[in-house]
C-alpha cells in the first residue's frame, strides 16, 4: 500500500490542487485545514510524508513542525513556503524538516521530494521494526518473528499455551515455525524441568515406528505396555513432540489416542502439514486421536499470506548472519525487495532464512549462479552440504586472517593452486576480507 500524504494548508485551493495532483499520480492523500487537527491525529505509526504550509493562522507551520517532531523526531515533513521566505524554510530544515517547496513548484519537483521523503520514512519504520524483532529474539518468548496480524495472534496463543498442560496440535506448511513453537511451549511451561523428546514421524520406516514410539511391536499393542526403551519412556513427564503425526500408521494412532487417558505420560505436541479432517474422511487418520489433539490447535500461516513480513524477516536474518561472521551486511535495495516479494517462498520462513544466510556468506553473484531462490530444495544433497561446509571453513579462515592467503594456506594445509581454485569455485575474494 502506498503511504499516505498529509496536506496541511489553510487555503482550500492549495489543498484541492495538491490532492488532485497526488490522486492522479497514484498517491493517497488527506487534507487538513489547520495544523491542530493534524497534530491531534499524528502518531509514531504514521508511515507517509506531511506537507505543511508555514504561514497559517492558529498554529503556524514552524510551531506544528516543533510539536510534530516532539511526537516523532524522524518524521518526513516538507514545508511549503512563499517566494522570498527561503530563510524561514532553511530554519525549518535546521529544526528537523525533511525538505521545503517554494511556491510555485512543478509537479516533477513535488513528486521527487515526496518519493525521497517516503523512502526515508520507510527506512526509519523498517529499522524500528527490525529493532523490535531483535529485542523479541533476545527476550523470553516464542521466536516466531513478524508483524502480520495472524502472527501477532499466533504469538499470543503460544505464550498462553505455555501455562496450560493439555496436548496441542500445530498445523502449517513446512518451515513455518512449528518446532520453534513446540520448544518454546515446553521450555517456558510447567514441564520445563522434564525432558523434551522429538520424533520425526515421516523419517522413520513404517515398520519401525511402533518400536520407536512404544519400545517394541509387542508392547505397542499390549493392554498395559511398559514403554521401556521408547520415546514415550524417554520423555517421561515432559514433552513428546511428534513432527508429522499424519505419517503414523492408523493402528499406532489408535494406541496413542488410548494413551491420552493415562496421567503418567508426557504431554504430546503434534505437528502436521496436511488437513487431518480430510485424512479422517479417507480413513487414514484416527478420529479419536484428532479429537484429543485438536482441542487445542494452532494454525501457522504460510509466508505468502503475510508478505508484509518478508522484508523484515530477511533484514533480521541478514544482519544476524553478518554479525555472527563479523562482516558487513549486504544492502537490501528496492530491486532486491521486489524480487523477495514476488518469490512464492514455498519453503516459508525456513527457505527465506537459508536464502538470507547464503546471500551474506556467498554474495549476490553466487546466488545467481545457483539459480537464486527459484531452485530452493527442501533437503540438500550430500554434495551440497559438503560444499557449504567447505565454503564456511574458507570464509571463516579468510575472515580471521584478514584475507591473507598465505596464512589461510598454512592453516588449512592447502597448496597455493588448490586454495585459489577453491576461492574461485566459492566466489570468495580476498579483498573483501581486508581489515
From TrEMBL:
Pfam families: AAA_lid_14, HTH_8, Response_reg, Sigma54_activat
Entries under SMART domains matching the protein: REC (SM00448)
InterPro entries associated with the record: AAA_lid_NorR, CheY-like_superfamily, Homeodomain-like_sf, HTH_Fis, P-loop_NTPase, Sig_transdc_resp-reg_receiver, Sigma_54_int
Matches recorded under CDD domains: AAA, REC_DctD-like
Keywords, ordered alphabetically: ATP-binding, Nucleotide-binding, Phosphoprotein, Transcription, Transcription regulation, Two-component regulatory system
Start and end residues of each Response regulatory domain: 4-118
One BP annotation, GO: phosphorelay signal transduction system
Keyword Nuclease found: no
Source organism superkingdom: Bacteria
GO molecular function: ATP binding; sequence-specific DNA binding
PTM annotation (4-aspartylphosphate): residues: 53
Domain Sigma-54 factor interaction: from-to ranges: 144-361
Listed name of the protein: C4-dicarboxylate transport transcriptional regulatory protein DctD
Gene that this polypeptide is encoded by: dctD_1
Amino acid at each position: 500500500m502506498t503511504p499516505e500524504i498529509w496536506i496541511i494548508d489553510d487555503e482550500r485551493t492549495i489543498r484541492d490542487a495538491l490532492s488532485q495532483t497526488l490522486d492522479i499520480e497514484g498517491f493517497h492523500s488527506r487534507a487538513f485545514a489547520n495544523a491542530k487537527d493534524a497534530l491531534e491525529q499524528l502518531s509514531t505509526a504514521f508511515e507517509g510524508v506531511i506537507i505543511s504550509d508555514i504561514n497559517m493562522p492558529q498554529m503556524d507551520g514552524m510551531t506544528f513542525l516543533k510539536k510534530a517532531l516532539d511526537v516523532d523526531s524522524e518524521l518526513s515533513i516538507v514545508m511549503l513556503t512563499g517566494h522570498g521566505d527561503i530563510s524561514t524554510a532553511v530554519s525549518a530544515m535546521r529544526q528537523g524538516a525533511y525538505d521545503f517547496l517554494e511556491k510555485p513548484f512543478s509537479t516533477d519537483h513535488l513528486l521527487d521530494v515526496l518519493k525521497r521523503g517516503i523512502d526515508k520514512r520507510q527506512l526509519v519504520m523498517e529499522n524500528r521494526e527490525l529493532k523490535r524483532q531483535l529485542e523479541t529474539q533476545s527476550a523470553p518468548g516464542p521466536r516466531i518473528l513478524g508483524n502480520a496480524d495472524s502472527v501477532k495472534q499466533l504469538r499470543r496463543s503460544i505464550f498462553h499455551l505455555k501455562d496450560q498442560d493439555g496436548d496441542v496440535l500445530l498445523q502449517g506448511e513446512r518451515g513455518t515455525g512449528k518446532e520453534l513453537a513446540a520448544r518454546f511451549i515446553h521450555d517456558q511451561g510447567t514441564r520445563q524441568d522434564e525432558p523434551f523428546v522429538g520424533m520425526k514421524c515421516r523419517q522413520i520406516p513404517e515398520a519401525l515406528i511402533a518400536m520407536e514410539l512404544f519400545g517394541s511391536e509387542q508392547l505397542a499393542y499390549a493392554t498395559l505396555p511398559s514403554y521401556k526403551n521408547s520415546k514415550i519412556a524417554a520423555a517421561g513427564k515432559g514433552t513428546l513432540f511428534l513432527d508429522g503425526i499424519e505419517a503414523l500408521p492408523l493402528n499406532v494412532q489408535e494406541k496413542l489416542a488410548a494413551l491420552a487417558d493415562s496421567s503418567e505420560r508426557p504431554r504430546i505436541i503434534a505437528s502436521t502439514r496436511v488437513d487431518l479432517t480430510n485424512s479422517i474422511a479417507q480413513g487414514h487418520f484416527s478420529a479419536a486421536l484428532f479429537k484429543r489433539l485438536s482441542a487445542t490447535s494452532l494454525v501457522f500461516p504460510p509466508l505468502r499470506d503475510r508478505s508484509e513480513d518478508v522484508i523484515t524477516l530477511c533484514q533480521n536474518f541478514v544482519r544476524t548472519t553478518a554479525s555472527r561472521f563479523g562482516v558487513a551486511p549486504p544492502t537490501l535495495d528496492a530491486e532486491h525487495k521486489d524480487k523477495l516479494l514476488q518469490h512464492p517462498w514455498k519453503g516459508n520462513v525456513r527457505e527465506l532464512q537459508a536464502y538470507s544466510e547464503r546471500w551474506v556468506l556467498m554474495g549476490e553473484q553466487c546466488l545467481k549462479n545457483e539459480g537464486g531462490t527459484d531452485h530452493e530444495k527442501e533437503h540438500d544433497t550430500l554434495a551440497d552440504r559438503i560444499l557449504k561446509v567447505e565454503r564456511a571453513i574458507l570464509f571463516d579462515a579468510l575472515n580471521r586472517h584478514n584475507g591473507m592467503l598465505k596464512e589461510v594456506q598454512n592453516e588449512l594445509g592447502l597448496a597455493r593452486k588448490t586454495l585459489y581454485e577453491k576461492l574461485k569455485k566459492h566466489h570468495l575474494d580476498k579483498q573483501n576480507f581486508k581489515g
